[in-house]
Amino acid sequence: MAIRTTAAVLVGRAVRVAARLRGGGSAIPGNIALKIDPGFLERTIASIPDGVVAVSGSNGKSTTTNMLAAIIRAHGLKVFTNPSGGNLPQGIASALLSEVTVSGRLDADIAILEIDEGYGTRLAELLKPKTVLLLNIQIDQLNRYHEPDRVAAMLGRVAAASTDGLILNREDNFLVDLDAQIPGRPSRTVSFFGGVPSLVDGASHGVASADRFGAASAVPGSRPAAVEVVALDGARATLAITPVGTPDGDTDAAARTEIEVRLPARGMHYALDAAGAAAAARSVLGDRFRPELVSRALDTLETVYGRGELLEVEGEQIEIIMMKNPASLQLNLDSLETAPEQVFLAVDEGTPDPSWIYDIDFSALDHVDGITGSKAWQFAVRFGYLGIPVVAVDLDVKAALKQFLALPRPASGHKVMILNYEQMMLIRKILGFKELEGGGAA
Amino acid sequence: MAAAPQTLRILHLFPRLLGLNGESGNVDILRLRSEWRGLPVEVIAYDGGAPLRFDDADLVFIGSGPVSAELLAHPLVLAIAPDLKQLAADGRPFLAIGAGFQLLGDRITLEGGEVLEGAGVFPITTRHGGTRVVGDFVVESPRLGTVVGFENRGSFVDVGPHGTLGRVVYGRGNTETPGEEGFWEDNLLGTHMHGPILANNPGLADSLLDTARSRRGLQYTDAAPEALRSIDERARHARGTIAASPLSE
Ligand SMILES: [Zn+2]
């Protein structure tokens, strides 16, 4: 067994180096390591003293995982985490490869792992999370999971695996009473995060939770929150945190600690991500939890790859908006302060069915300079019916990109590119940026 | 006597329950295609409850949804079945997608074997189950040429000897062995082409509008405005792109 682990680690690492030299980071090394030693992931993870915290949901997994890892690190723990998007078994194994010793030991106190909702059931079996943080169920990749009810069922199985803590978004139609839908465990503490009604209702598209039909035992927002977003000002939010050990239900406001946190960008969804991360840290750390360390951790956090990221191209800053799913696109469009002067859009078959663009409010845009990718014409039709002028459609990505970048610098703000994941990777490569390691695209 | 108002009325059935995946885009597209040609449109949304004066409707649209929503919509659809049958018999065009199409049929057999009675507008039956197909969908319609969209279904439809939207070129269609897709006879069009089917296929939208207009004797003031010509050119490119290299899961 030990020899096999060593072989898995060494071969996996060699493949990882080779893959990097070729310019393609990926889940391949993890895949190979798992082939040589199928128990590699499970066994290595099981040896982590404080266990696993699993973060899942339709949207905001990477951001929140990053926030939670930073908060836990600020409390002095050694954290193992998977990089953004590397949320399938092979992606997690790839991440492990870079950190384990040759004998397969990992130097970490706790693992904080973003997991793909579609693989949630399998990953929950493999990883046996002590704590599970669930963010939301949005209309995400319906072509993949077909129906929000199925995603809810999959996340229910992940939630049921948690032994110590379950943290849920009370503003989500499906999660607000998920604890009542799964078998309970005496050892498990359930806590919620959310926002004050004025902020939740005021977000121009709410929190973009999927519609739920049929019986529900609780109305979104109705559960008492361990961490609540009480104020929002641009990219800063105020969180009210209920003291550890008090029952969440009967805490008067005076007993709560209010902290101010920095968000990756404007937007209520980021504030809720921060509240979720703080609530999970509170649940995991118990008496060791210090609210002020949440502020400190989030202040120093780097923006997660690809979300609201600024790329520097020939001395010019270009803002990237990831179009991962309808909800994330809507929230990102809503967070634009003014209609960008120059906008470029690239979408390919990584988004197999862009039908949902008919549910999106594109009023944040007043024109589009260029559209490319195999779905470009479908977007052009949509903008046609919206009366949003489209300057150019060109399926040749390189040519379209060149034309867009040739535009003179905007008078205010920066160029904005709205991209799906696959086009973001392609365009980064065309522009000569290093590719993302970790693989297993979200 | 006052002149009859020159307005086309679209009845949008159960937009809240049945509107998965951008399907209400179909209603917007019908409205804009008529309004840009000078014929005003009124959209009447019906989500159940107090009965509307259904008789005003010139065109009826019903969309799709997950099985959970289909089950909730079922009694609501049955409650208005006589009105809908009347509208259909009277020549008002219907566009019914996915779950909405199934509910307007004669019968639905659920995966567990339970049988739901449908509204009986379309002479079709549906059987849930089998492998789900998800992917691009290309159909050759004798009336309109290439029709493209997206297929995402876990059910089969039996349309008997009736007319269809067209022959499946890529995707699965009504039956286990790819053959024909949907139902299209006279004023009734039903399909499992999900999402805003009318976006890529403006010919279908115009055909529904023409049926509705001719019943009422309503005219466009400008049959081919520039805005529509440029959108239809984009839609032609969209059909071409999908038909040239369709993909599925
Ligand atoms: Zn369907």
Automatic annotation (TrEMBL), chain A:
Keywords: ATP-binding, Cell shape, Cell wall biogenesis/degradation, Ligase, Metal-binding, Nucleotide-binding, Peptidoglycan synthesis. Gene3D superfamilies: Mur-like, catalytic domain (3.40.1190.10). Residues 55-192 form the Mur ligase central domain. Pathway: Cell wall biogenesis; peptidoglycan biosynthesis. Residues 323-422 form the Lipid II isoglutaminyl synthase (glutamine-hydrolyzing) subunit MurT C-terminal domain. The keyword Metal-binding applies. GO terms for molecular function: ligase activity. The keyword RNA-binding does not apply. Belongs to the MurCDEF family. MurT subfamily. The lipid II isoglutaminyl synthase complex catalyzes the formation of alpha-D-isoglutamine in the cell wall lipid II stem peptide. The MurT subunit catalyzes the ATP-dependent amidation of D-glutamate residue of lipid II, converting it to an isoglutamine residue. This is Lipid II isoglutaminyl synthase (glutamine-hydrolyzing) subunit MurT.
UniProtKB/TrEMBL annotation, chain B:
Pathway: Cell wall biogenesis; peptidoglycan biosynthesis. Keywords: Cell shape, Cell wall biogenesis/degradation, Glutamine amidotransferase, Hydrolase, Ligase, Peptidoglycan synthesis. It holds the Pfam family GATase_3. The active site is at H194. The keyword Cell wall biogenesis/degradation applies. Residues 26-201 form the CobB/CobQ-like glutamine amidotransferase domain. Gene3D superfamilies: 3.40.50.880. Substrate binds at R132. It catalyses: L-glutamine + H2O = L-glutamate + NH4(+); beta-D-GlcNAc-(1->4)-Mur2Ac(oyl-L-Ala-gamma-D-Glu-L-Lys-D-Ala-D-Ala)-di-trans,octa-cis-undecaprenyl diphosphate + L-glutamine + ATP + H2O = beta-D-GlcNAc-(1->4)-Mur2Ac(oyl-L-Ala-D-isoglutaminyl-L-Lys-D-Ala-D-Ala)-di-trans,octa-cis-undecaprenyl diphosphate + L-glutamate + ADP + phosphate + H(+). Its EC number is 6.3.5.13, 3.5.1.2. The lipid II isoglutaminyl synthase complex catalyzes the formation of alpha-D-isoglutamine in the cell wall lipid II stem peptide. The GatD subunit catalyzes the hydrolysis of glutamine to glutamate and ammonia. The resulting ammonia molecule is channeled to the active site of MurT. Belongs to the CobB/CobQ family. GatD subfamily. Forms a heterodimer with MurT. This is Lipid II isoglutaminyl synthase (glutamine-hydrolyzing) subunit GatD. The lineage of its organism: Bacteria, Bacillati, Actinomycetota, Actinomycetes, Micrococcales.
